[in-house]
Amino acid sequence: MQQPRRRRNVYPIKLNNSDASAENKFKRRIIQVHRRRITLLLAVGLVILVALGSRVVQAQQEREQTRVEFNQHQKRLQQTKQKQANLQTEVRQLHNPEYLDNLIRYRFNYSKDNEIIYNIPNEANQNLNF
User: Fold this and answer.
1) pLDDT above 70: residue 13
2) Sequence-separated (6 or more) residues with CB below 8 Å from residue 103
3) Does residue 27 lie within any of the structural domains?
4) What whole-number distance in Å separates Cα of residue 130 and Cα of residue 94?
5) pTM here?
6) Which residue from 40, 59, 36, 37 is spatially nearest to 48, judged by alpha carbons?
7) 2, 41, 42, 109: which has the fewest C-beta neighbours closer than 10 Å?
8) Cα-Cα-Cα-Cα dihedral of 30, 36, 39, 44, to 10°?
9) Within-domain flag for 120
């Protein structure tokens, strides 16, 4: 069973002239309290905003650093793959007897029978593909 609703009777306060200053003081006090509350809410909001904003900035910096590291690792991976391809080519060439013969003759100055070896300065050796 519902209880009957009570009605609040609010009547305006009838003041004489001496009480008018008390009413003004009360109104000023209410305004002052509201200003303090608004200031406090704004300060709390600002603190929260700064905290969240700093976290966003920190996350962006971490993301940028991760991206830079990723690019460095990608470069290193490409270099390693290229080196591996070069080594595989070299291994295939070492199985070729003609290439192996030329390589030994070039690096260790071996010669065939009745063959004379001439030493050429290093600048001219750059054109040789051994």
Assistant:
1) no
2) 94, 130
3) yes
4) 11
5) 0.49
6) 40
7) 2
8) -120
9) no
CA 65/CA 57 separation, integer angstroms = 12
For the chain, the domain total comes to 1
What length is written for the chain?
130
Q: Which helix (H) or strand (E) holds 68?
A: helix 17-94
Q: Is residue 16 part of a domain?
A: no
Dist CA 105 CA 89 (whole Å): 20
Average pLDDT estimate for 12-40: 82
List all residues 6 or more positions away from 100 whose beta carbon is below 8 Å from its beta carbon.
93, 94
88 — pLDDT class (breaks 50, 70, 90): very high
- Expressed as residue numbers, the domain containing 96 is 21-113
Pair of tokens at residue 87: 């080594």
